[in-house]
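Changelog-linked ticket: 4'-deoxy-4'-aminopyridoxal-5'-phosphate example.
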Amino acid sequence: MTISEIRSFFPVLNQKVYDKPLIYFDSAASAQKPVQVLMCEEKLHNDFYGNIHRGAHFMADKATIEFENVRTKVAEFINAPHREEIIFTKGTTESINLVAFSFCEAFLNEGDEIIVSEMEHHANIVPWQLAAQRKKAKILKLPFNDSGILEIEKLAELISEKTKIVAVTHVSNVLGTINPVNEIVKIAHQKNVPVLVDGAQAVPHLKIDVQEIGADFYAFSAHKMYGPNGVGMLYGKKEWLEKMPPYQGGGEMISEVSFEETTFNELPYKFEAGTPHISGVIAFGAALRFVEEVGFDSIRKHETELLKLATAGLKQIPGIKIYGEAPEKSGVISFNIEGIHPYDLGMLLDKSGIAVRTGHLCADTVMQHYQIGGCLRISFGIYNTVAEVETFLATFNKIRLMF
Ligand code: PMP
């Protein structure tokens, strides 16, 4: 698919903001949605909306079939061995909270330890802290170096008989680093420790094979991969999910309820309490089909070209500091320029039509590593162009000279 074909599916990009052509460089926060996804959601509401699983009529049955087809599609997309290992959630954050609550309820005890990397999004730190507080356990940090590379050689030393789980991101939302998750899982598994991988920033860019990675849990959101917001998924190995207690109660997660006792439904329904985001899940299927149609080889090639061009351009600017220079990076560049506050830069770029992200990027531990209060981040999607990167660099240069 050519870039102009791709862009034709995103009419939202063909607009002006503050009278300037929009350049959307904030896909790592949330990606725009192609018409295929928008139409899929609309079609459900126009044609066959009904509540799923317990319906006794045509529309409910049809919605249930479409919903469950997406579960199969997600399983194929990440090469999960069993479709019942796919649990629909609100997003990565809820997926991680589910595991942090339920896994830790079953397996974490006083004095135990959880290893979390230093480059995590808050969504992969705070749920573990809450669990650790509940169970009087400890969080240990797996550090990264100043280039933004995880020091995985330290992992084996950190793991002890007290370690219950390792939580690590596949791709950092600040540094862009693509972590060697296969190796991390191998090291942890040698000591019989399971691993949760946060795939929120990986799925839009890389072909994921959970069997090849070997992760025990893998989480991601639909909205970062051109799907709807409010939907995500958790992959968990059956042998863990079966032993874990429910996370929330109500709806489809029960088998039988009396005031004395409730028995729980089988996987995956045990973890899907309440009416889910039916239209969102069905449109998630359209996003998966769209991304597959574009193809991960082209996505990676295109985003790497934009990344190289933008990095080289930024590096020529005096006073620039880029955070994260790992050799394996996704399309994310976080940086600061000496003497200018990132909020001021972000605001002036916005007024020039360029949408970027500023602040701590929900990754305070990364900010603390570099001893900064915040930074500016540009991130690319499949619809961004070389011309947009060139316009960004020229605009950025003009803005910095104003200070
Ligand atoms: N992990 C990472 C690495 C992220 O980038 C994000 C979103 N910024 C999340 C987790 C949380 O995702 P969500 O808000 O969709 O739950």
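Closing comment: Example verified and attached. The chain has a mean pLDDT of 97. The domain at 38-292 is CATH 3.40.640.10 (Aspartate Aminotransferase; domain 2).
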